[in-house]
Write a structure and sequence with these properties.
Length: about 190
């Protein structure tokens, strides 16, 4: 079964937060003959997104056209703060998370998972400069900066920026086995997952 991996984009998203996971899942799909992952980007509207530091991205889908994701990835960046009060975004995330096989945040994407109640009772992390903010948003979670990512089963959180690559490789290993993750890391010239 080919899984849809949806990367949520928004203004001021941190580039490597979504581009790192995008690369991991796209490379894995390529190495496996394009039969594993359908990697897409999705945003609230079809307008181009200006990411952190100016990169412009054209999303593949809007909320209205996005196929149901098997893996929902919520990156971080300064733009997450404004989204904490954006009810259409929160409602879409809540709906997609309910039916997704896995939900993964990177960096301050954890803020959005906290806002919709997905981190309660779980171990979570975010960027090292934002740990106190996450504690305030998720008082029922255990915010633990001791690891680059935490796997709680359905919900995974990764620390800042490049930790999203580590967590994505971990997901590949979970779904397809350690050899698939090692092959992807080798292709990407990235340290093999441990």
């Amino acid at each position: 079964m080919k899984r849809t991996v949806a990367l949520f984009l928004f203004p001021d998203v941190e580039v490597l937060d979504f581009a790192g996971p995008f690369e991991v899942f796209a490379v894995t799909d390529e190495l496996r003959g394009y039969d594993t992952f359908n990697v897409i980007t999705v945003a609230e509207t079809a307008a181009p997104i200006r990411a952190r530091n100016g990169l412009r991205i054209l999303p593949d889908h809007t909320f209205a056209t996005c196929p149901p994701p098997h893996l929902l990835i919520v990156p971080g960046g300064f733009g997450t703060r404004a989204l904490l009060k954006n009810e259409p975004v929160l409602a879409w995330l809540r709906t997609q998370a309910a039916s997704a096989e896995l939900v993964m945040s990177v960096c301050t994407g954890a803020f959005l998972l906290a806002r919709i109640g997905l981190l309660d009772g779980l171990r979570a992390t975010t960027h090292h400069e934002c740990l106190d903010d996450l504690r305030a948003l998720a008082p029922a979670a255990t915010v633990d900066p001791s690891a680059r990512f935490h796997d709680n089963g359905k919900i995974l959180t990764a620390a800042g920026i490049s930790a999203g690559i580590d967590c994505s490789l971990h997901v590949v290993s979970r779904l397809l086995g350690p050899a698939a993750a090692a092959s992807t890391a080798r292709y990407m010239e990235y340290p093999p997952p441990t």
